Structures are given as structure tokens and as C-alpha cells.
Amino acid sequence: MPYALGIDVGGTFTDAVASDGAGRIVSAKTPTTPSHREVGVLNAIEELAGELGIGVEELLAQTDYIAHGTTASINALVQGTVADVGLIATRGHRDSIYIMNAEGRTLGRSAHEIQDTLRRRKPAALIPKYRALEVTERIDYAGRVLVPLDEDEVREVARSLVDQGVEAIAVCLLWSFKNDAHERRVRELIHEIAPQLYVTLSSEVSPRIREFARTSTTIMNAQVGPRLRSYLTPLQRRLEDGGLKGPLLVMQSEGGTITAERAPEQAITTVGSVLSGGVIGGMRLAEQLGHRNVITTDVGGTTFLAGLIVDGEPVMAPGSIVNQFPINAATIRVHTIGSGGGALASVDTGGNLRLGPQSAEAVPGPACYGNGGTRPTNTDANLVLGILSERGLLGGRKPLRMDLARQAIGEHVAAPLGLTVEEAAIAIHEVQNAQAGDLLRRAVVQAGYDPRDFVAYAFGGAGPAHCAGYCRDLGVSEVVVPLGPVASAFSAYGLAASDVAVSTELSDPSAFPIDHRALESHYTRLEADLQRALDRQKVKFHDVTLHREIDLRYSMQVNELAVAIPDTRFTERTGEEILERFEEQYERINGSGAGYREAGVQAITYRVRAKATLGFPVVLPEIEQADGTDASEALLEERPVCLDSQTGFVSTPVYDYARLRAGHELVGPAVVEVPTTVVVVPAGVTGRVDRLGNLVLSYQ
């Protein structure tokens, strides 16, 4: 029987899901192994095989594909554990990466941080200046060669960088997105000197106007590409040696996969791969439940992630920012804060309780894990409050230490604030809910949407324990906790259910609307490039759908909006239709009447995305129907649980999820124990088990 596997390597846990395409899905959760992440991946596959009752070799031999989401790229950039990179730029233009387009002090900062003028700082440079070298060449805005490439100079510069011991070279020449001939020749000359050296070209990674963003994207691609290759290559080899016949696919920020062989070339597209899995899983679940607008909330061990699905599709962004440097790579728009189950609680010098962004991660983990952690976390607070049982998670294989949790909270939070351990624990719990609720409001309202038009999905190891709290004030119609066979491995389910995705783009700044024949020419070229990119994947897929976009802005503005273009023939009316879409989208975000066409509109970048289905139906199965709404047969115990600082500890029924059936209802306060998580149903909330085994929470 064939299988599809999804593997989500997070900062604390590695989650995995296996589907047989016929309705059977099993999941597994194992600790992430930070120093050798492939070990955690193989451990998770072994757990899946055990759940299926077969051997690892048999499972791999029957696997059609493995879709893998990894934190390797984003962690390397954030932590600075990247390859030593050299830059080759057009003479006179290497300093763009240091000048930072005058944005260096504000990029990626909140409004509060931007207003704090005295503390604003540029980030550390991506590479030292002695590794940023220049060559003589010049291409103009139309792609015409004004000054030929000085090849002897390129050889000299390349030898200098190789002698410095760089692991990769980024090549970013002026106007190369209009004519890439010089960049391609530079790569050929570098490989004459160092055939195996990793070389990345801006014309391939980021063919967009704006020199600074293009250069930063190319450098960061070179920084993470070699390390991603050194991780994926041995992982793929070990999987193939173990019997894997299908491809290893890697999730990208835009919500689709590429093969492990191609991923290092476009390493920057994998930066948000783990963030995308949960949103894609939410999209697939929404298709089964008939929901069009969804807020996805993923609370893992390290982070809280929020994404939006509107009219059945994820909300996208043309790029992102890491460490105050822009990345030109299409991505699912995901908002994040360091406020997961392992978020560290502390008291600052002003006597304020802080939660995150630092995390206990997998090692040493929360204090209650008994692995050497001594600082309190959100998980420790939930144990003290009775939300978690000392039996722990993973079917009792991970018992929790109440004494260590109380000791950590008492020393680091309760004593400094003059509170009891229980009071400090509920304060931690409520701060978590407040931080998450604030993020959700920003994510939805700042995107121009009304939360009342959405359903919220809550998953991850810690999401179900807090979702009723952080969604209470949003005004959503209901909160769905995806349980069933995927439980807290929901992001891994999204990976297994994802498609192959590739995209191409080109920049051609001009006044809009342009002649419809020019539009036809641009998109014909892009779609031909896409077909070649799909062919290079060497993966068997079925239906291919194309999604066209164009980035537009009003004249003299800095930022563009990505506007979808209908997949129809271009006519004289097409330009006007695109402008109408742009104005509608602009006013939805910025307010009615904010548009001003008289200022003129500019087209900047044209883009086409392709999604190719793998033909494997990864869907959640339906569960057994209950005879009625009474869930007493699933009652496990009653224990004191504190869910509110005003009411304190209340004797609360605790239910065993394995005994719940479709149609069962729970009236809060209640707790539902799942092997890998717990669901909290506070007072004033009702929980109903739907046909897929999800617990649907609604406010009374």
C-alpha cells in the first residue's frame, strides 16, 4: 500500500504524519535533535512505522514521497550559523548592502521600536567588506551592454575569495534581472577555478528591481544554501539506503514543495517552510469542512504562528524580513512571536512579567521535563494549574515533574512578584493568552479583514490548551481544534497534503496600464520558464494550475500590492480590469477613498506561480458517530484545574479523547486529554466533536 509522509522539524519537536490515501492517517512526535536533525527525522519515521505495524524499510519502500519542512534555513539566518560568503558586485555598487537603501534602522521593526530614535541601530552587516568585491561591467535599464565584462578581473576576484576560504559566492550585478549574461559568465569563470563551489546568481534567485533587496536575498541564499545541501544530501542518502523509492520534497515559504536536489539552489525559498505547513493543512481541512475564511493558529514549543486563508487560499506576501534584511521570495504571510509552550517566563528589572521570546527548546526543555531545565515556561505553568497531568504526554512516555515546575516558577516568578506559585502560574497562562490575542488582532485587522467573518483553527502542542482564551475577544464564529489522527502533528499533515510549487517573476517597471500585447509577452515568457522549472523537478505530478500576479503601486509610493490576474486571454480591457482590482484591494487595506488613480499607477514585477498536484489524496477520515450528545463514557477523572484568576481552582471533568465520538458535546469547564496535547474548554464555552474528530468550540 502506498504512503505519503509529512515531516515537520520544529525547534522543540519533530512531528510526522503518514497517510495511505485511503483514509488511514497515523502521526508521531519525537524530540528534535538540534545537533543532528536528521536523527530526529529518522526517529519520527521509525515511530510512524510502529504505529502502522510495519518495519521502517517496508514503510520507506512503499512511500510515494516525503514532504519535509525544516527550520534549518531560518535558524541559520537568525542565529548567524551560516556559511562564509563572498560577494561579487558591479564596480561602484558593492556598498548597497551596507547603505541598506536608508532603511537599515527601521526594516522589520514595530512602530514602537521605530519611534525609539535613540535605540535604533543598523544590524550587523551580512558579510564583512573585505569579502565584498567588485568587477568592471555595466548593463543599462533596458538590458543593453554598455561596458563588457572584464573576465580577467573576475578571475582575479574569484581567486581572492577562494583563497579567503569562502564556502559560497553571491553574484549580484547591476540590472542583471534585465540581462543575465554577465552573471552567468561570472559563474562559469568561478567554476573554472573552483568547480564545486556553491555560486548563486541574483538573476536566478531574485530577478527584481531594487538593488539592496536583491543583493541581500542573493547573499542570504548563498549563506544557507551550502548548509541546507549538507543536511539534505546525507538525509536523502540515508532514506534511499533505507529503501525510499519516492522523492524527498522540501516545503517552501510559498506553500508548495520542490525536490531536495533543487532546494539548495533556491535555499532562500525554504526559510518559511515550517511556517507554511500549518496554513496548508488548514486550507486542506477547510476544504473538507466547507470553511472559506480561516485564521490558523499554531502554538508549538517555541513560537506562536498565525496565518490567514481568505476565499479558500492562503494570504501571500511578495517577501519577508529576517534580521532587518529583506528577502525577495514569495511567502505565505505568517505572523509570529516567541510565545510557545516552551516560552521562558521571567520578571524584568521593572517588575513586569515577561513570557518569551526566549524558549527552553528541546534541550533542556521546560523544568517539568526533568532534563536539566531550571527556568519556568508556559508548560510548567499549565502543569501547576492542573491543565496538564503529571502523567504527561506521549501516552505517559513523558511524565512531568510537578516539584520541578513549582520550584522554577517559585524562584523566578512568584518570589520576585510576591505571589504564590499558583498565582504566578495563572499570570503566566493569562499573559500567554493576551500576547496571542494581540497578535491575532494585528494579523487580521491590519490585513483589512473583519475577524467576525472567520473561523479560527488551533493546533500545535500548546495551541489547544490556550485557543479558547486567545480567541475569546476576536469575535470569530467558532474555534476548530483539529484532532483525530493528526492532533498536534497538524503542520506535518499540511506538508503531506501539499503540492509541488514553483514560481517565476520578472521586473519591468513602467507606467500602467500597458498595452495588452506587452502583458501577453511577459506572461508567455514566464509560463515557458515555469514549464522548464517543473520539468527539472523530475517528479510525477498530475494537474498543473497557474496563478498570475502583478505588483502595482501608486506613483511615488515605496511599497507595491500583489494583484491577481485572471487566467484568461489578454484584451484591450484587461489593463482596466487589473486597475479596478488594485484599487479595490488598496482601499480594503487602507480605507475607503484612500486610492488616487490620478497620481498614476506603476507596474513593477510580473509573477506566475504553478501548483502541480501529486495525485495522492491526503484527507482526514470520518470517525464513528455517537448515539447522543452525552460524553460521560469518555470521562477519565475529575481534578482541580485553574482556568481563571477570579474563580481559582475548580473541580473539572477530564475526558479521554480516544473515547469521544462524533456528536459528543462538552460544557465548560472541561479538559480533553490527547496523547500529544490537551484541549481546554473554559466556562462559558461548549465543545462539540465533529465528523472528522475535531473539537469545535463555540462561545455561549
Find the count of extended strands (DSSP E, 2+ residues). Answer: 35
- The fraction of residues assigned to DSSP E strands is 25-35%
- The number of helices is 17
Gross morphology is globular
Gap from first CA to last CA:
45 Å
Radius of gyration: 26 Å
Helix content: 25-40%
Largest sheet: 9 strands, mixed
Q: Runs with pLDDT <50, length 5+? A: none
The helix-and-strand class reads alpha+beta
Mean model confidence by pLDDT:
88
Describe the structure in brief.
With 700 residues, this protein is α+β, with helices and mostly antiparallel strands. It contains 17 helices and 35 strands.
Fold topology:
Blueprint: E1 3-9, E2 13-19, E3 25-31, H1 37-52, H2 56-61, E4 63-70, H3 72-79, E5 85-90, H4 96-99, H5 111-115, E6 132-135, E7 138-139, E8 145-147, H6 151-163, E9 168-172, H7 181-193, E10 198-201, H8 202-205, H9 211-241, E11 248-251, E12 257-259, H10 273-289, E13 294-299, E14 304-310, E15 313-314, E16 316-317, E17 320-322, E18 325-327, E19 331-332, E20 334-337, E21 343-347, E22 353-359, H11 378-384, H12 402-417, H13 421-445, E23 455-459, H14 463-470, E24 479-481, H15 490-496, E25 500-512, H16 516-537, E26 544-554, E27 561-565, H17 574-590, E28 601-612, E29 635-642, E30 649-656, E31 665-667, E32 670-674, E33 677-681, E34 685-689, E35 695-699
Parallel strand pairs: 1-4, 4-11, 5-6, 5-9, 9-10, 13-23, 23-24, 30-32
Antiparallel strand pairs: 1-2, 2-3, 7-8, 11-12, 13-14, 14-15, 14-20, 16-19, 17-18, 21-22, 24-35, 25-28, 26-27, 26-28, 29-30, 31-34, 32-33, 34-35
Helix pairs in contact: 3-9, 6-7, 10-15, 11-12, 11-13, 12-13, 13-14
Protein name: 5-oxoprolinase
Domain Hydantoinase/oxoprolinase N-terminal: 5-193
Domain Hydantoinase A/oxoprolinase: 214-501
